[in-house]
Amino acid sequence: MEAQLKTTCLHGSHISLGAKMSPFAGFDMPIQYSGIIDEHNAVRNAAGMFDVSHMGEIFVSGKDAFAFVNHVFTNDITGQKEGSVLYGMMLYPNGGTVDDILVYKEFEKDCYLLVVNASNIEKDYDWLVSNSKGYDVIIRNASEDWGQIAVQGPDSQAVLENLLSLDCCGNLLFYEFCDITYNSERLIVSRTGYTGEDGFELYSSPEAICRIWDILLKGGVKPCGLGCRDTLRFETGLPLYGDELSDEISPVMAGLSIFCKPEKQGGFIGSQSILDQKAGGVARKLVGLELSDKAIPRAGYPVLSADGNEIGVVTTGYRSISLDKSLCFALVDTAYSALDTAVQVQIRHKTFAATVVRKRFYKTKYKKQL
User: Structure pTM?
Assistant: First the structure.
């Protein structure tokens, strides 16, 4: 018997708006409303909003919170300022990825908020608990207590200031947040997102998030589904856990070792594997590919060398909405990972010429990107 899909606090609104719904990470989520292309372009050119209440929120607090989070997190939180956010991963000892996460340094002493992927909430919580022996910490999975809206696009600051009167937005730099009281409810506003554009993510109680969503909706902000969230993140080179990162794909393989600081005091779980991979190399690397044809590469399609040998696999692929090109991420043998290397992508029973290019296919006007 299949497990029943979970729903977010905004599920009723999605249904009333006629959204196309589909299972995602165990939730019944909106894939599109007016259409993926329309929603994608709204975010690139103005602003759109996403229900991301399926994401997980795990709080780590206590006198050993700093030491513990630094032990399980690849980035270095030493000296992290209150009100700042860091991106990084949690790894297995062999360097495989447990999850890629955000770490918020709370204004409360010795407290961190870890924002994790929806599909990994229980796994991440269990991983944290299982590695907490010897640390004086409290680990609390508060995912059910929070809703979340992402407002993304070049007009996102103006939208939040005009419709919600959030005057803190202009004071936030990239990857900073404020923790305020808004209409008698706690509200976290962070200058983060998953589109490559300027944008903000709002965290509050499910009830407050529903009220905020309705205000933004009445104010004309376009609701956007997870379909265009994927095309937007893909164009700007952002990874998706399960596709570009996994228990078998390390940050070094994914080209994300900049977010791993194995030299920090005490290292982190998996740091020796990362050092070994950086020193000795890895068998496969994640690359960007541009096809010379309009055929669309999809996840799972084989990647071949110029002489026809199978050398890798597509992890994500689209006909880019912003660039009108057929593009994909692919995990390929390292010997074929250099820029401008000629390869082929097998799509059904045909092969199409492709070239290795940088994974950030599209550069937005917003300069501050991961």
Answer: 0.96
